[in-house]
Specification:
- There is one protein chain.
- By secondary structure, the chain is mainly alpha-helical.
- Strands 1-2 form a two-stranded antiparallel ribbon.
- Helix 6 crosses helix 8.
- The longest helix has about 30 residues.
- The termini are far apart.
């Protein structure tokens, strides 16, 4: 008589702990969530106070803090009316400057995004002589401070380019709204190095077999870029576009130098600096003007937030 032996079931051992899993576990703990909530509250409290202050009357905003609103709630739209639509030069006239900011920002985002996309694709998937040296030169341009290029670029616009007394490029001599072209050109030049570098890192990580299969099927480089590459690098394009939009929208130095401070070409940042004046005592108008200036970039960021997060994480997570 033989006894049957039942095999003991094998228990699956837990997967080995990796540094990535340990970090992810710590970041998703209750304490990490609580710290994130506290940081978010501290970060948004000044914005909330600015929002309340923009609706408070002038006498209250100059005498009491915004937190006193809860004990004496008084609201008015006079600040926004004065800032946006007043005809007085000392009040605001922000509506026209808001349009100027949009005219400056939208092309200053589209031009570098488009040019950086073409350049990054060429440096990633076109084999030509000197490609690596061009990429190294573009990478090196990122360390050049923006302030060092302002004077040469302004000289280029106002005097042109001369070599041994021979005029190679004439002066632009732009006036009025035509100065928008100078601002577009300047922002595009300043954004291209980092844009090409960022998009090249994403495009060069695409599978080479995918590009080769498209080439075998007879696809041209234009079709490969439009049908295959662009959908795959959309998060990177969104991230670069958001960064460029925020930079151009909040810029004061470049716009003040190349567009001037006139109402027909100056953006909102120039007008806000003028409203602050030497004493900065027009608090009720400054709060309303500041909140008007952050509405557009806030809406852009919230509408493209999912692409922005995916673009930031795409290069740092493997597998």
């Amino acid at each position: 008589m033989t006894a049957t032996v039942t095999p003991t079931p094998k228990t699956s051992s837990p997967p080995p702990s990796t540094p990535q899993s340990r970090v992810r576990k710590r970041l998703t703990s209750r304490w990490a969530s609580l710290i994130a909530i506290v940081i978010a509250l501290l970060w948004t409290t000044p914005t909330f106070g600015l929002f309340l202050s923009s609706f408070r009357p002038e006498d209250q905003i100059k005498q009491t803090g915004w937190w006193t609103f809860f004990s004496d709630p008084v609201l008015t739209l006079e600040n926004y009316q004065s800032v946006l639509f007043s005809t007085s030069s000392s009040s605001g006239q922000m509506a026209s400057f808001l349009i100027n900011s949009l005219v400056i920002t939208i092309p200053s985002v589209l031009f570098p995004v488009a040019l950086a996309t073409f350049a990054a694709y060429a440096l990633s998937w076109l084999d030509f002589r000197g490609r690596d040296w061009i990429y190294i030169g573009i990478f090196a341009l990122q360390v050049v401070p923006l302030q060092m290029a302002l004077v040469p670029l302004l000289s280029f616009f106002s005097q042109g380019v001369e070599i041994f007394g021979l005029t190679v490029l004439p002066a632009w001599d732009l006036e009025g709204p035509a100065k928008f072209i100078q601002v577009w050109f300047a922002h595009t030049c300043f954004a291209l190095p980092v844009g090409v570098f960022l998009l090249h890192n994403f495009m060069s990580e695409l599978p080479g077999s995918l590009i080769e299969a498209a080439r075998v099927d007879g696809a041209t480089h234009g079709k490969i870029l439009r049908r295959i590459v662009l959908p795959l690098v959309l998060p990177a394009l969104a991230s670069f576009g958001i960064f460029q939009f925020l930079w151009v929208w909040n810029d004061l130095l470049v716009a003040l130098i190349f567009a001037g401070g006139t109402p027909d070409s100056a953006p909102m940042t120039v007008r806000l600096a003028q409203m602050a004046g030497t004493r900065g005592n027009e608090w009720q108008r400054l709060t309303a003007g500041a909140f008007v200036s952050i509405i557009v970039p806030l809406a852009v960021f919230l509408s493209m937030q999912r692409y922005f997060v995916r673009g930031l994480l795409a290069g740092g997570i493997k597998g």
